[in-house]
Amino acid sequence: MWNNASITLMQRHRALGSWKRGRVFPPWLGPWESLRTISRLQYRYVTTGSLKDRPRTGKHRKTTDNEDMYLTLTSRRRPFYSGQKLANHLHTTTGTRICAQSVHNRLHLAQLKGRRPFTGMPLTDGVPSPT
């Protein structure tokens, strides 16, 4: 089956130009040389006037680009905030509710990791030592 993602927009324009000049199989087409590929590109160009991909279905993101940037900045400023704490912090500042997994995904896109909160034992018991 023909995979749209493997063909760049420039290659699509070159294939359509070759088809208009009468050449059905341009030599650079590679492994997906077929008349069906060229005919689908031609049909798309005639119907839509463009060779760009059509919009795909998928779930819409709850956070905007600015909120994603805010999460990454907050994570850098407060490195020991957990994902849930970052999600709560985002909700109090912007009103957008997201889960801790979404925070983890956004931080992963920014090449950051969600840190575990520091829950170590205190080094002293709070009582001053007699000296």
Spell out the blueprint of helices and strands.
Layout: H1 9-20, H2 35-48, H3 65-77, H4 83-94, H5 100-109
Describe the fold and architecture:
The protein is mainly α and 131 residues long. Among the domains are: 45 residues; 45 residues. The protein is built from five helices and no strands. The relative contact order is 0.10. The model has no long low-confidence stretch (mean pLDDT 80).
**Span between termini:** 80 Å
How many H/I helices?
A: 5
> Which value, in Å, is the CA radius of gyration?
26 Å
Instruction: Write the H/E string, N to C.
Output: HHHHH
Structural class: mainly alpha
Report on the biggest sheet.
none
Binned strand content: under 5%
Tell me the quaternary state: single chain
Number of distinct beta strands: 0
**Fraction of residues in helices?**
40-55%
Low-confidence stretches: none
Shape: rod-shaped
Mean pLDDT: 80
